[in-house]
Amino acid sequence: MDLYYDFHMHSCLSPCGDNEMTPFNLVNTAKIFGFDIIALTDHNSCRNCRAAMEAGKAAGITVVPGMELCTSEEIHVVCLLPTIESAERFSDFVHANIPPVKNRVEIFGDQLVMDSTDNVIGTEEILLNTASYFSIDEVPDLVKEYGGVCFPAHIDRHSYSILSALGDFSDTLDVRAFELTMQADEDYYRNTYPATRDKILLRDSDAHYLENILLPEHTIDLPENTPQALIDYLKG
Ligand SMILES: [Zn+2]
Ligand SMILES: [Zn+2]
After folding, report:
1. How far does residue 165's CA lie from ligand 1's centre (Å)?
2. pLDDT above 90 (res 151)
3. What is the CATH architecture assignment of 2-234?
């Protein structure tokens, strides 16, 4: 079935994520806009995924638990997990492998942890937008240990992308998909970087604010509308 998707979205847990971008608001806005499946991918944490998945269940939209992991080279990688349990275990492991720098609320925002009906249930004290201790080549195997899959985020961006950090895909990078921003020219990237030619292209919004959520445009053909079906597809 063809499903309207957005697999890269942030909530109020992310530094620079708007406090109005609660899991409830994010999920219900996506539902109203007509998405079938979305992923919540906060920086270096899955702590709002449980709320987003519960809100998704209530609204009738599939929410894939995920994270935008920042590697030691400052490359952003979208990681998707099959279940909330695997996502929370992965999140705890990543939390133990990022620098213990305290968040500065006045600069980076509150990093709010929410429940599924818009109540604040905590805050994340450690700053979430720092580089983790994992190198890019380690991430695919790491995510695989938790049953998940990953792909390099917004490779056309001039910062925090695999191309900005390395200049090309590393030969040893074991991924089957990559992400472009909505504006990027697919042909340019396919022609310039041969490593992208046999890979699945995803287009995501990277929304940090409710007003950044775009109307559905791109679809993915999955046998069923579940996180596991998506992960299986992205594993090739
Ligand atoms: Zn990013
Ligand atoms: Zn992002």
Report:
1. 13
2. yes
3. Alpha-Beta Barrel (3.20)
